[in-house]
Design goal:
Radius of gyration: 21 Å
Largest sheet: 2 strands, antiparallel
Number of strands: 2
Number of helices: 17
Helix content: over 70%
Order of helices and strands: HHHHHEEHHHHHHHHHHHH
Oligomer: single chain
Distance between the termini: 31 Å
Strand order of the largest sheet: 1-2
Structural class: mainly alpha
């Protein structure tokens, strides 16, 4: 029988079982393809906080889903599929950002470029790595749909799951495109940064997983509305914390080099606020230093330290911390306005705190 306290372990077991069946299918196509899918399986199972399935599960529990009910195992499989959408997003995002590491290990495109070099194949290793990452990310997205549909849910539950599932995928990809677009146009406005946070992160990290869980339980419209308000606010706060960690985090904890977000050119709210503050104060040198650092692949440790000081001196760090606190408060207000079954009500409050105060 399932147990709320063993949720992460249960999610990983569900993923492992599903992925085993898919790698068998891949072997039937060609051993080389199976070898490539093994890399995807390793990527999915090698780590991660399993935040999205966790929010979806507690969304289901809070809407009346019972852990000892016959459908609980099917719901677990369904919400575990969110990790495959996450894998798609991360693999493609790492490629677009030219990131070398993820969770302290080579990113997928880097790993496949290395395989190309080691094997002495023809052509350009980087292009091969990029192609492999695109295909494996696409495969993860396709397998997410397969896992949801094969979860064993009744047709009525699958029908209810369709709107949040469909909206989540479109919002995620839309947010990713806006991120790429704003990097290309050099848009450092707070509006652009919040738009990316809302759709690239909040929608598919918290808001839609909660919506999905509630839909699977046939939750009340007012509960779904409260979940979505809570999810949108906590999701943005989650991303703002990530932005701070991307510049100020400890690489030993985050698994990414310090300052990578700056080198990759991410147009975060942290950067947007700093630029806005510098312009209002007439501090052109500070503004130019921050904007020049964003997207500079050669930014060294001393350069990162200098930008950290500027972000702090301009008050951007304090502003983001205040925004995180305000968003967390408004999210918790949304939860308190509706009736949510226990222990989900308590657990969602704890998850909000965990998502916004984390160090990795």
């Amino acid at each position: 029988m399932l147990d709320d306290t063993g949720l992460v372990v249960a999610v990983e077991a569900a993923l492992a079982a599903f992925l085993r069946s898919r790698t068998t299918d891949a072997t039937a196509i060609d051993p080389a393809f199976a070898d490539a899918t093994d890399a995807l399986v390793e990527f999915v199972l090698q780590g991660g906080k399993r935040i999205r399935p966790t929010f979806a599960w507690w969304g289901w529990r809070g809407a009346g889903g019972a852990v000892d009910s016959p459908e609980a195992v099917s719901v677990l499989r369904a919400v575990s599929a969110l990790e495959l959408i996450q894998a798609c997003a991360l693999i493609h995002d790492d490629l677009m950002d030219a990131s070398a590491t993820r969770r302290g290990r080579p990113t997928v495109h880097v790993e496949f470029a290395r395989r190309h070099v080691t094997a002495g194949w023809t052509g350009q290793p980087a292009r091969f790595g990029a192609a492999a990452a695109i295909l494996l990310g696409d495969l993860a997205l396709a397998w997410a749909d397969d896992m949801l549909r094969a979860a064993g849910l009744p047709p009525s539950a699958l029908l209810r799951a369709a709107p949040p599932w469909q909206a989540m995928r479109t919002e995620m990809l839309g947010g990713q495109y806006l991120d790429v677009l704003h990097q290309a146009t050099g848009d450092t406005s707070t509006r652009a940064a919040l738009q990316i946070d809302r759709y690239k992160t909040a929608a598919y990290t918290v808001e839609r997983p909660l919506h999905l869980g509630a839909a699977l339980a046939d939750g009340r419209p007012e509960l779904i509305s409260a979940y979505r308000r809570f999810g949108a606010d906590i999701g943005v706060a989650f991303q703002l914390r990530d932005d701070l960690l991307g510049v100020f985090g400890d690489p030993a904890v985050t698994g990414k080099p310090a300052g990578d977000d700056l080198r990759e050119g991410k147009r975060t709210l942290l950067v947007a606020v700093a630029v806005e503050r510098a312009e209002k104060r007439g501090q052109r040198a500070a503004r130019d230093a921050v904007t020049a650092a964003v997207g500079d692949p050669n930014l060294d440790a001393a350069g990162v330290a200098r930008i950290r000081d500027l972000l702090t001196d301009l008050g951007a760090v304090q502003t983001i911390e205040h925004r995180i606190a305000a968003l967390t408060g408004s999210a918790l207000d949304a939860l308190s306005a509706v009736e949510i079954d226990e222990p989900a009500a308590t657990e969602l409050v704890a998850l909000a705190e965990l998502a916004t105060r984390r160090r990795s």
